[in-house]
Design a protein that fits this description.
single chain, alpha+beta, Leucine-rich Repeat Variant, 4-stranded antiparallel sheet, two-stranded parallel sheet, 16 helices, globular, binds iron/sulfur cluster
Length: about 350
């Protein structure tokens, strides 16, 4: 297989674009370790683990003899949604990447099909590996890193997932790395961030990021940040939404990413506040949302309810102050104090 064979197969499998680069250390390694030393990864301790750091430094630790990184992208932008629904305080809001089916389930089988064609040693990752995937994708010519730290494709914006294959196969030619940035003087994402999570361009302090707080963070959320979270209950799209490069975003050809109904985009808080573990699993079956579990989702819904100040939710919040989950009962008590 060569570079054009790989791209043709990726396209046949439904990926939106593909690129390849030599398996060399990420050009962003030093910046990454500075970020870890500054504790901006918050409670995501796995990012700082010595074995993970070793893998990021040397891809050979993941796959001895690795020669190439084959990278694919899959657009996930789907429907324009009425802004009045998204900002409705009686509804929570879910980041657009999670409106449909779990992208891991859709992408990993396709990546494995490519690996089968390679006939050599390979590892497949969809944001699960200890590699700095966006920077490797930049080296593979896919796009540039924006001031919001997202990888931006100059002809389709940043609403896409990345997947990678590390392989011992070497190609005769590779893609040309993308130049560093095309943000120019724009600072829209930096000023639009509700929690001021960018201490400077190209650096995200995860501890303030709504995606981190609502998805990754397992404990109670800093009370100072809660009012800034608004009605987000799973992730956040703000720093991407405001980016002018999104004018090139294409509707995804992957039907599995389209929401089955509005409740997957902006669920009613009254429905989230009554979820038990079984109802949570049932409601979000097949979605990446299941990974946060019921407690974190209900915690987030309590905070959104507190921010909404909707008196009709008072009874549900009072009941949740006795919830066995400490993060839920504490958030419910906070929400009640807000009204
Ligand atoms: Fe760059 Fe502006 Fe997009 Fe931010 S909003 S990533 S500064 S182009």
């Amino acid at each position: 297989m060569n570079l054009s064979d790989f791209k043709a197969q990726a396209s046949r499998l439904g990926f939106s674009f593909a690129g390849a680069t030599r398996a060399e250390p990420s050009p962003y390694l030093a910046a990454y370790f500075q970020w870890i030393e500054a504790h901006m990864h918050g409670t995501m301790g796995y990012l700082a683990r010595p074995d993970r750091q070793l893998r990021r430094r040397d891809l050979n630790v993941i796959l001895p003899g690795v020669r190439s990184l084959l990278i694919v992208g899959l657009d996930y932008r789907t429907l324009p949604i009425d802004p009045a629904i998204l900002s409705d305080p009686s509804r929570g809001r879910i980041a657009s990447y999670a409106w449909g089916l779990d992208y891991h389930d859709l992408m990993i089988p396709k990546l494995n099909a490519i690996v089968d064609s390679l006939g050599v040693e390979a590892r497949v990752y969809v944001d699960t590996g200890a590699i700095l995937e966006r920077s490797h994708a930049m080296q593979a010519g896919i796009g540039f890193t924006g001031k919001n730290t997202m990888l931006i494709h100059p002809r389709r914006g940043s609403y896409f997932f990345l997947g990678e294959i590390l392989t011992t196969l070497a190609f005769d030619e590779y893609d040309t790395p993308h130049r560093a940035t095309q943000c120019g003087t724009c600072t829209r994402c930096l000023t639009a961030c509700p929690t001021d999570a960018f201490p400077r361009p190209y650096v995200l302090d995860a501890r303030r990021c709504i995606s981190y707080l609502t998805i990754e963070h397992k404990g109670t959320i800093d009370p100072m940040l809660r009012p800034l979270i608004g009605n987000w209950v799973y992730g956040c799209d703000v720093c991407q939404e405001v980016c002018p490069w999104q004018r090139f975003a294409l509707p995804s050809a992957e039907t599995g990413f389209y929401p089955v109904d509005l409740d997957r985009v902006a669920p009613r808080l009254q429905d989230l506040l009554v979820l038990d573990e079984a109802a949570f699993r049932d409601r979000f079956a097949g979605s990446a949302i299941t990974r946060i579990g019921r407690d974190r989702m209900v915690r987030n819904a309590c905070i959104a309810a507190g921010n909404a100040g909707d008196a009709s939710l008072t009874g549900q919040l009072i009941a949740l102050t006795a919830d066995p989950s400490a993060i839920v009962s504490e958030a419910a008590a906070w929400a009640l104090q807000k009204r």
